[in-house]
Amino acid sequence: MTEIIVVTSGKGGVGKTTTSASLAVGLAKRGKKVAVIDFDVGLRNLDLIMGCERRVVYDFVNVIQGECTLKQALIKDKRLESLYVLAASQTRDKDALSKEGVERVLTELAEDGFDYVICDSPAGIEKGAALAMYFADRAIVVVNPEVSSVRDSDRILGLLASKTRRAELGNGGIEQYLLLTRYNPERVAGGDMMGLGDVKDILGIDVLGVIPESPCVLTASNAGVPVILDGESAAGQAYDDAVARLCGEQRPMRFLDAQKKGIFARIFGS
Amino acid sequence: MGLFDFLRARPKNTAAMATERLRIIVAQERSQRGAPDYLPLLRRELLEVIKKYVNVNPDAIDIHVEREGDSEVLELSVALPEKPNASGATAPANA
How high is the ipTM of this complex? Predict the structure, then answer.
């Protein structure tokens, strides 16, 4: 049984691709066979975050248009045996994707025995985003604790509830989770950033994880190594917790409390 | 907080402001969700027709769709001005 998970948000720059890459790696590390697909046609970036940008020969659109086989377009990860990347086309426009084409690719991945397909949605609510969510079984809505991101997430939740295949078939819709990223516990404690409870209350859905703001996210993307592989970093550990919860494990939320400042920092500020 | 931070004006709790603003706008947007796309246009055209007869405020028309069981109810309410204006409510304006 293949599970299709869409990583979406509405707003751009909140961490969809970072999240897609880390979830895919985390699931593959648990021995699952995983494909991660970039739906952002024209603005390909997942390949860079995954560190396979020089190995892209064929892309998602090539497969949909029958210009190559799916096998030829899937890029095998160098670190994990069971992880594959399908890059977005950099040259075509978003109309190159079609519902039938996407369905064909997803069906073929299911036939090939993939356990998970992660769909990395583009920002916005147009065709690419609509297609990324349409076939999903579960949705992860990436949100920053910031007004425009929270509002856009609510818009996306509305679309997930009505514009997916599961919603149209009327079999209960799709499971939805929030994933808070760029969370800064110090600013939450100081009252100038909304906390986990606030965002959860406003949007009213379960939270899969909270990823603390961390300089390691940038250094990981610089190096093309998904941040989950940096086991030392708080962000990497938080992504690992999120993957565990996705697989049904119970794990307490971490990295929610502000670090205690030393006496020196208290006196002189920092 | 450093030793001299008290000299700076303390900012208000802006996270609470954000939460409050979002609660309101999200509730409002959710109530409009699933409504037909033509509602804003319908509202505008109705307003034009009504304006031929009564000089109403553009905000005076409240229109929304409510679901009651299997049927949908289109609810329209128009707040008329308290005093009829010169052209009167019964006679069409000289437009």
Answer: 0.86
